Amino acid sequence: MPDPRHLLSLTPIETWRLVRRRLPVLRDGPAWTAAELLSSAKHIRGIRFAELLLRQEAIVRRHMDWSPLNFEGQHVVEVGCGPLAGFGPLAIFCGAASFESADPEWNEKLFFSEPISERYLHLFHADLVGLYGPRMDFAAFRSALAQRMTIHRSGFETAPITAPVNIVLSQSCLEHVFPLEATVAKLEAIQTPKSRFLHLVDFGNHYPTKHPLDGLYEQPAEAYIARRGKAINLLRSSDVTRLFAESSIASSTIPARRVADNYRGTIHPWWRERYDDEALFTQLVLVAGPPAIVDS
Ligand SMILES: C[S@@+](CC[C@H](N)C(=O)[O-])C[C@H]1O[C@@H](n2cnc3c(N)ncnc32)[C@H](O)[C@@H]1O
Protein backbone atom coordinates (compact mmCIF):
# COMPACT_ATOMS: atom_id res chain seq x y z
CA MET A 1 0.00 0.00 0.00
CA PRO A 2 1.13 3.58 -0.53
CA ASP A 3 2.69 5.42 2.42
CA PRO A 4 -0.26 6.66 4.58
CA ARG A 5 1.50 10.03 5.10
CA HIS A 6 1.43 10.53 1.36
CA LEU A 7 -2.27 9.65 1.27
CA LEU A 8 -2.94 12.48 3.72
CA SER A 9 -1.52 14.99 1.22
CA LEU A 10 -4.00 13.96 -1.50
CA THR A 11 -7.58 14.96 -2.19
CA PRO A 12 -10.17 12.29 -1.29
CA ILE A 13 -10.69 11.41 -4.97
CA GLU A 14 -6.95 11.00 -5.58
CA THR A 15 -6.68 8.84 -2.45
CA TRP A 16 -9.56 6.65 -3.55
CA ARG A 17 -8.08 6.16 -7.04
CA LEU A 18 -4.66 5.27 -5.61
CA VAL A 19 -6.06 2.78 -3.12
CA ARG A 20 -8.38 1.26 -5.73
CA ARG A 21 -5.47 0.66 -8.12
CA ARG A 22 -3.77 -1.47 -5.47
CA LEU A 23 -6.81 -3.58 -4.59
CA PRO A 24 -7.54 -6.20 -7.26
CA VAL A 25 -11.12 -6.72 -6.00
CA LEU A 26 -11.96 -3.06 -6.57
CA ARG A 27 -9.91 -2.57 -9.73
CA ASP A 28 -12.78 -3.75 -11.93
CA GLY A 29 -15.49 -2.00 -9.94
CA PRO A 30 -17.38 1.04 -11.19
CA ALA A 31 -14.76 3.76 -11.36
CA TRP A 32 -15.94 7.09 -12.70
CA THR A 33 -19.27 8.76 -12.08
CA ALA A 34 -20.88 11.23 -14.48
CA ALA A 35 -20.71 13.95 -11.82
CA GLU A 36 -16.99 13.38 -11.34
CA LEU A 37 -16.25 13.48 -15.08
CA LEU A 38 -18.45 16.51 -15.73
CA SER A 39 -16.79 18.49 -12.95
CA SER A 40 -13.29 17.73 -14.26
CA ALA A 41 -11.77 20.66 -16.17
CA LYS A 42 -9.81 18.12 -18.22
CA HIS A 43 -12.49 15.56 -19.02
CA ILE A 44 -15.37 17.94 -19.75
CA ARG A 45 -13.61 19.30 -22.88
CA GLY A 46 -13.89 16.64 -25.58
CA ILE A 47 -12.47 19.04 -28.16
CA ARG A 48 -9.13 18.83 -26.32
CA PHE A 49 -8.49 15.67 -28.34
CA ALA A 50 -8.62 17.68 -31.58
CA GLU A 51 -6.39 20.36 -30.02
CA LEU A 52 -3.94 17.70 -28.84
CA LEU A 53 -3.81 16.13 -32.28
CA LEU A 54 -3.28 19.49 -34.03
CA ARG A 55 -0.45 20.35 -31.64
CA GLN A 56 1.15 16.92 -31.79
CA GLU A 57 1.10 16.73 -35.56
CA ALA A 58 2.59 20.24 -35.74
CA ILE A 59 5.47 19.10 -33.48
CA VAL A 60 6.02 15.92 -35.49
CA ARG A 61 6.06 17.95 -38.74
CA ARG A 62 9.04 19.92 -37.38
CA HIS A 63 10.99 16.66 -37.28
CA MET A 64 9.78 14.68 -40.29
CA ASP A 65 7.81 14.93 -43.50
CA TRP A 66 4.54 14.03 -41.72
CA SER A 67 1.26 14.03 -43.62
CA PRO A 68 -1.76 14.64 -41.36
CA LEU A 69 -3.66 11.58 -40.17
CA ASN A 70 -6.77 11.13 -42.28
CA PHE A 71 -9.46 9.12 -40.48
CA GLU A 72 -11.75 8.73 -43.51
CA GLY A 73 -12.65 5.04 -43.90
CA GLN A 74 -9.90 3.93 -41.51
CA HIS A 75 -9.84 1.38 -38.68
CA VAL A 76 -8.58 3.45 -35.76
CA VAL A 77 -7.29 1.97 -32.50
CA GLU A 78 -6.43 3.77 -29.26
CA VAL A 79 -4.51 2.37 -26.29
CA GLY A 80 -6.26 3.38 -23.03
CA CYS A 81 -8.89 5.82 -24.32
CA GLY A 82 -10.07 6.70 -20.80
CA PRO A 83 -13.65 6.99 -19.55
CA LEU A 84 -14.96 9.26 -22.35
CA ALA A 85 -13.72 7.23 -25.35
CA GLY A 86 -10.67 9.42 -25.98
CA PHE A 87 -10.06 10.10 -29.68
CA GLY A 88 -13.06 7.89 -30.60
CA PRO A 89 -15.72 10.58 -31.14
CA LEU A 90 -13.26 12.74 -33.10
CA ALA A 91 -12.21 9.81 -35.32
CA ILE A 92 -15.81 8.75 -35.96
CA PHE A 93 -16.92 12.33 -36.71
CA CYS A 94 -14.04 12.60 -39.20
CA GLY A 95 -15.19 9.50 -41.06
CA ALA A 96 -13.41 6.55 -39.41
CA ALA A 97 -14.98 3.25 -40.43
CA SER A 98 -14.41 1.95 -36.90
CA PHE A 99 -12.75 2.87 -33.63
CA GLU A 100 -11.55 0.27 -31.17
CA SER A 101 -9.89 0.70 -27.81
CA ALA A 102 -9.30 -1.03 -24.49
CA ASP A 103 -9.22 0.59 -21.09
CA PRO A 104 -9.76 -1.08 -17.70
CA GLU A 105 -11.78 2.00 -16.65
CA TRP A 106 -14.23 1.89 -19.56
CA ASN A 107 -17.93 1.87 -18.69
CA GLU A 108 -20.15 1.85 -21.78
CA LYS A 109 -23.36 2.50 -19.82
CA LEU A 110 -21.86 5.62 -18.28
CA PHE A 111 -20.56 6.92 -21.62
CA PHE A 112 -23.97 6.61 -23.29
CA SER A 113 -25.86 7.92 -20.24
CA GLU A 114 -28.09 10.98 -20.46
CA PRO A 115 -25.85 13.36 -18.44
CA ILE A 116 -22.75 12.53 -20.53
CA SER A 117 -24.72 12.82 -23.75
CA GLU A 118 -26.29 16.14 -22.72
CA ARG A 119 -23.30 17.84 -21.16
CA TYR A 120 -20.32 16.25 -22.90
CA LEU A 121 -21.24 14.86 -26.30
CA HIS A 122 -23.47 17.75 -27.40
CA LEU A 123 -20.76 20.36 -26.81
CA PHE A 124 -18.08 18.09 -28.28
CA HIS A 125 -20.22 17.63 -31.39
CA ALA A 126 -20.80 21.39 -31.71
CA ASP A 127 -17.03 22.00 -31.43
CA LEU A 128 -16.30 19.30 -34.03
CA VAL A 129 -18.79 20.94 -36.42
CA GLY A 130 -17.01 24.28 -35.84
CA LEU A 131 -13.62 22.74 -36.57
CA TYR A 132 -14.38 20.26 -39.38
CA GLY A 133 -17.74 21.41 -40.75
CA PRO A 134 -21.26 19.91 -40.53
CA ARG A 135 -20.27 16.37 -41.43
CA MET A 136 -23.19 14.87 -39.43
CA ASP A 137 -25.94 16.11 -37.10
CA PHE A 138 -26.00 15.16 -33.43
CA ALA A 139 -28.41 12.22 -33.83
CA ALA A 140 -26.26 10.71 -36.62
CA PHE A 141 -23.11 11.35 -34.53
CA ARG A 142 -24.50 9.57 -31.47
CA SER A 143 -25.72 6.62 -33.46
CA ALA A 144 -22.39 6.38 -35.35
CA LEU A 145 -20.62 6.25 -31.96
CA ALA A 146 -22.89 3.41 -30.84
CA GLN A 147 -22.43 1.48 -34.08
CA ARG A 148 -18.78 2.08 -34.97
CA MET A 149 -16.98 2.21 -31.61
CA THR A 150 -15.93 -0.95 -29.78
CA ILE A 151 -14.22 -0.39 -26.45
CA HIS A 152 -13.07 -3.31 -24.34
CA ARG A 153 -13.07 -3.01 -20.58
CA SER A 154 -9.65 -4.59 -20.13
CA GLY A 155 -5.97 -3.98 -20.49
CA PHE A 156 -4.99 -3.28 -24.10
CA GLU A 157 -2.49 -6.15 -24.07
CA THR A 158 -5.23 -8.75 -23.56
CA ALA A 159 -8.01 -7.14 -25.60
CA PRO A 160 -9.35 -9.04 -28.64
CA ILE A 161 -8.16 -6.36 -31.07
CA THR A 162 -6.79 -7.90 -34.25
CA ALA A 163 -4.69 -6.90 -37.25
CA PRO A 164 -4.67 -5.00 -39.49
CA VAL A 165 -5.22 -1.53 -38.06
CA ASN A 166 -4.72 1.68 -40.04
CA ILE A 167 -4.16 4.27 -37.30
CA VAL A 168 -3.04 3.77 -33.68
CA LEU A 169 -3.15 6.52 -31.07
CA SER A 170 -2.57 6.95 -27.36
CA GLN A 171 -2.65 9.97 -25.11
CA SER A 172 -0.78 9.83 -21.81
CA CYS A 173 -1.33 6.10 -21.46
CA LEU A 174 1.95 4.26 -22.12
CA GLU A 175 3.49 5.63 -18.92
CA HIS A 176 0.65 4.03 -16.91
CA VAL A 177 0.96 0.53 -18.34
CA PHE A 178 2.60 -2.35 -16.44
CA PRO A 179 4.58 -3.89 -18.10
CA LEU A 180 4.96 -1.79 -21.24
CA GLU A 181 6.61 -4.75 -23.04
CA ALA A 182 3.22 -6.51 -23.29
CA THR A 183 1.57 -3.43 -24.81
CA VAL A 184 4.33 -3.00 -27.39
CA ALA A 185 4.02 -6.72 -28.24
CA LYS A 186 0.28 -6.24 -28.77
CA LEU A 187 0.93 -3.22 -31.01
CA GLU A 188 3.43 -5.29 -32.95
CA ALA A 189 0.80 -8.00 -33.41
CA ILE A 190 -1.93 -5.70 -34.76
CA GLN A 191 0.11 -3.22 -36.81
CA THR A 192 1.44 -3.57 -40.34
CA PRO A 193 4.22 -1.43 -41.85
CA LYS A 194 1.41 0.77 -43.24
CA SER A 195 -0.20 1.44 -39.84
CA ARG A 196 0.34 5.05 -38.85
CA PHE A 197 0.70 5.81 -35.14
CA LEU A 198 1.14 8.66 -32.70
CA HIS A 199 1.67 8.10 -28.97
CA LEU A 200 2.03 10.97 -26.52
CA VAL A 201 3.94 9.81 -23.43
CA ASP A 202 4.12 12.00 -20.31
CA PHE A 203 7.09 11.21 -18.04
CA GLY A 204 6.10 13.76 -15.39
CA ASN A 205 4.92 12.99 -11.87
CA HIS A 206 1.23 13.59 -12.78
CA TYR A 207 0.74 15.86 -9.77
CA PRO A 208 0.19 19.63 -9.76
CA THR A 209 3.64 20.28 -8.25
CA LYS A 210 5.89 23.29 -8.93
CA HIS A 211 7.98 21.26 -11.37
CA PRO A 212 6.52 18.32 -13.33
CA LEU A 213 9.36 16.00 -12.22
CA ASP A 214 9.32 16.93 -8.50
CA GLY A 215 9.71 13.92 -6.22
CA LEU A 216 10.43 11.37 -8.95
CA TYR A 217 14.22 11.18 -8.73
CA GLU A 218 14.78 11.23 -4.97
CA GLN A 219 14.73 7.42 -4.74
CA PRO A 220 15.09 4.46 -7.13
CA ALA A 221 12.07 3.87 -9.35
CA GLU A 222 11.01 0.73 -7.51
CA ALA A 223 10.96 2.55 -4.16
CA TYR A 224 8.83 5.35 -5.65
CA ILE A 225 6.31 2.84 -7.04
CA ALA A 226 6.25 0.92 -3.74
CA ARG A 227 5.43 4.16 -1.90
CA ARG A 228 2.92 5.69 -4.29
CA GLY A 229 1.26 2.69 -5.93
CA LYS A 230 1.30 1.39 -9.50
CA ALA A 231 0.13 4.62 -11.10
CA ILE A 232 3.10 5.39 -13.39
CA ASN A 233 5.74 2.88 -14.54
CA LEU A 234 8.62 5.40 -14.31
CA LEU A 235 10.17 4.34 -17.58
CA ARG A 236 12.02 7.24 -19.25
CA SER A 237 12.04 8.25 -22.92
CA SER A 238 15.16 6.14 -23.62
CA ASP A 239 13.35 3.02 -22.31
CA VAL A 240 10.33 3.64 -24.52
CA THR A 241 12.57 4.27 -27.54
CA ARG A 242 14.44 1.02 -26.83
CA LEU A 243 11.24 -1.04 -26.45
CA PHE A 244 9.93 0.18 -29.81
CA ALA A 245 13.38 -0.29 -31.41
CA GLU A 246 13.43 -3.90 -30.17
CA SER A 247 10.05 -4.52 -31.80
CA SER A 248 9.35 -4.71 -35.52
CA ILE A 249 7.65 -1.28 -35.42
CA ALA A 250 9.75 1.38 -37.13
CA SER A 251 9.25 4.49 -34.99
CA SER A 252 10.75 7.89 -34.21
CA THR A 253 10.80 9.38 -30.72
CA ILE A 254 10.30 13.14 -30.84
CA PRO A 255 10.78 15.32 -27.76
CA ALA A 256 7.77 17.58 -27.19
CA ARG A 257 8.75 19.19 -23.87
CA ARG A 258 12.13 19.42 -22.11
CA VAL A 259 12.06 20.75 -18.55
CA ALA A 260 15.67 20.80 -17.31
CA ASP A 261 16.00 24.55 -16.64
CA ASN A 262 14.20 25.00 -13.33
CA TYR A 263 14.54 21.54 -11.78
CA ARG A 264 15.71 21.99 -8.18
CA GLY A 265 15.24 18.48 -6.78
CA THR A 266 17.91 15.99 -5.77
CA ILE A 267 18.74 13.07 -8.04
CA HIS A 268 19.46 9.67 -6.49
CA PRO A 269 22.51 7.88 -8.00
CA TRP A 270 20.18 5.09 -9.19
CA TRP A 271 18.87 7.51 -11.87
CA ARG A 272 22.27 8.97 -12.78
CA GLU A 273 23.68 5.46 -13.31
CA ARG A 274 20.97 4.68 -15.88
CA TYR A 275 19.95 7.88 -17.64
CA ASP A 276 21.53 10.96 -19.17
CA ASP A 277 20.07 14.46 -18.82
CA GLU A 278 18.18 14.07 -22.07
CA ALA A 279 16.25 11.09 -20.70
CA LEU A 280 15.84 12.57 -17.22
CA PHE A 281 14.49 15.94 -18.32
CA THR A 282 12.37 15.17 -21.34
CA GLN A 283 8.87 15.26 -19.92
CA LEU A 284 6.79 14.75 -23.09
CA VAL A 285 7.61 12.71 -26.15
CA LEU A 286 5.76 11.65 -29.26
CA VAL A 287 6.42 8.18 -30.61
CA ALA A 288 5.40 8.36 -34.23
CA GLY A 289 5.59 6.67 -37.59
CA PRO A 290 5.54 6.18 -40.53
CA PRO A 291 5.58 9.74 -41.98
CA ALA A 292 2.90 9.01 -44.59
CA ILE A 293 0.90 6.06 -45.88
CA VAL A 294 3.42 3.52 -47.09
CA ASP A 295 2.76 1.91 -50.49
CA SER A 296 3.44 -1.79 -50.46
C1 LIG B 1 -3.92 9.46 -17.78
S1 LIG B 1 -5.20 8.37 -18.30
C2 LIG B 1 -5.41 8.93 -19.98
C3 LIG B 1 -6.76 8.59 -20.51
C4 LIG B 1 -7.05 9.19 -21.90
N1 LIG B 1 -6.09 8.75 -22.87
C5 LIG B 1 -7.08 10.70 -21.80
O1 LIG B 1 -6.17 11.37 -22.30
O2 LIG B 1 -8.04 11.21 -21.20
C6 LIG B 1 -4.40 6.81 -18.49
C7 LIG B 1 -5.36 5.71 -18.93
O3 LIG B 1 -4.61 4.53 -19.14
C8 LIG B 1 -5.47 3.46 -18.80
N2 LIG B 1 -4.69 2.22 -18.65
C9 LIG B 1 -3.88 1.83 -17.63
N3 LIG B 1 -3.37 0.60 -17.89
C10 LIG B 1 -3.86 0.23 -19.10
C11 LIG B 1 -3.70 -0.93 -19.92
N4 LIG B 1 -2.94 -1.97 -19.54
N5 LIG B 1 -4.36 -0.98 -21.10
C12 LIG B 1 -5.13 0.06 -21.50
N6 LIG B 1 -5.31 1.18 -20.78
C13 LIG B 1 -4.69 1.26 -19.59
C14 LIG B 1 -6.13 3.94 -17.53
O4 LIG B 1 -7.29 3.21 -17.20
C15 LIG B 1 -6.42 5.39 -17.89
O5 LIG B 1 -7.69 5.55 -18.47
Question: What amount of the residues lies in strands?
Answer: 5-15%
Tell me the domain tally: 2
Count the strands?
7
Sheet with the most strands, sense and barrel status = 7 strands, mixed
CATH H-tier superfamily of the largest domain: Vaccinia Virus protein VP39
- CATH names the topology of the largest domain as Rossmann fold
Instruction: State the CATH class of the largest domain.
Output: Alpha Beta
- Strand ordering within the main sheet: 3-2-1-4-5-7-6
Structural class: alpha/beta
* Termini separation: 51 Å
Integer-rounded radius of gyration: 19 Å
Q: Helical region count?
A: 14
What does this structure look like?
- The chain is α/β, with parallel strands linked by helices and 296 residues long.
- It folds into 2 domains: 1-30, no CATH class; 35-289, 3-Layer(aba) Sandwich (Rossmann fold), CATH 3.40.50.
- 41% of the residues lie in helices and 14% in strands.
- The protein contains 14 helices and 7 strands.
- The chain has helices spanning 4-8, 12-22, 24-27, 34-38, 48-63, 88-93, 108-111, 114-132, 138-148, 180-190, 221-228, 237-246, 269-274, 277-281; strands at 75-79, 98-102, 149-152, 167-171, 196-202, 252-258, 282-289.
- A 7-stranded mixed β-sheet has the order 3-2-1-4-5-7-6, with helices on both faces.
- The termini are far apart.
- The site of S-adenosylmethionine has 17 residues, from loops.
